[in-house]
Amino acid sequence: MPEQQRQRIVSLVREFDQQGDHRTGSRVDQKSGDWLCAQIHKAGGQAKKKHFSLPLVHVDTCKLGLGDTIMDGVPLFDCLFPEINYISGTVGEIGSSAEIGIIVAPPQAESEQVKRLHQARLANQHQAIVVVTDSRFPKDGIALQNAEHYPAPFGPAVIQVANSHWPVIELAMQEREVLSIWLQASRTSGKAFNIQTLVEGSDLSLAPVIIMTPRSGWWNSTSERAGGLVCFLEMIRKALVCTGERSLFFLANSGHELHHAGLAAFLSERPGVEKSAYLWVHLGANFAAASPIGARLQFSDDVLKHGFIDLLKSFKPPAYEIKPHAVRAVGEARNIHDAGGRYLSILAGNDLFHHPADRWPAAVNLDNLYEWARVFENLVPQLVRKDSFKL
Prior knowledge:
Blueprint: H1 3-19, H2 27-43, E1 48-66, E2 69-72, E3 74-75, E4 86-93, E5 100-105, H3 112-123, E6 128-133, E7 157-161, H4 166-175, E8 178-199, E9 209-214, H5 222-240, E10 248-253, H6 261-269, H7 273-276, E11 279-283, E12 295-299, H8 302-312, E13 320-323, H9 333-339, E14 343-348, H10 366-383
Parallel strand pairs: 4-5, 5-6, 6-7, 9-10, 9-11, 11-14, 12-13
Antiparallel strand pairs: 1-2, 1-8, 3-7, 4-8, 8-10, 12-14
């Protein structure tokens, strides 16, 4: 990779990191979107903002108290907020008779702890639930859960706290002590925006390829989002100097952490586009993360799988595994999977997933990012050809 390109990638990651908390609809989300539009223009493309409406959560107070210990928390964004801003009750494990249920859980939705949390929320047997960040994450800071039910909040108030508070909470559970919760939060109508860029091919009758990446997330989300954004921009640069028959439509969505709200808005305006697009390329989460090493590739069919693996033979990509295409995809690719569309997708694990410590430079593996950027940049000449990846 040329040194100029390496320096450009480093600058992109550093600038994204320095923007702050990339939560959907926030001031930083708007600033970050303007920044991404400027990067597209700098590459020679035309960026279009597409606004969509959604409720925005505003948290005025979220604290927990055990004796003299006061803990800062963050509510789940898809729970119901109490009309009375104060809750008090005995603490115990979720599923117990305790008034306030406690669980230690990571932020990964597929984990058994999060599935158990979901069942406890459905049962609605506690006045409130406290989620303590799993001990595998740094003790200070909260690894937040995505709001998978953001369009339809439900269940009791759920407060997330850092693992540094676990010793105090664990002792309180043993003694069935009383926990106090102060939660004042509300939902108001708001807006966020996706960013779209079209690079036309020579035959506009052909269905386009859609290349999408999320651009929002909890906290700085540096290694979580950096891979997708860098590859997204490098692919735009390549597409603008690459001749071919098929158009490429680039889509950077806000609303990732809120049940893919931005992608859902895009799909609702284009009924059936999941299947009418020639295929989707999903540049997902974490494949720029320093740990663990290794990406997960997801394909809708063997033609895409074999074609992409053939491309990888020309490079030295980091370790990867292939998810069977009969298994439901994760990340934004799941929306396409569920609708029966064609897709290839990359994402990975992250030891700092949804945690404030996901920051530049320690959380980012630049060598991996450089190599994946080369791979996806060189995927573009295949994507624009009329017969590439044809079933």
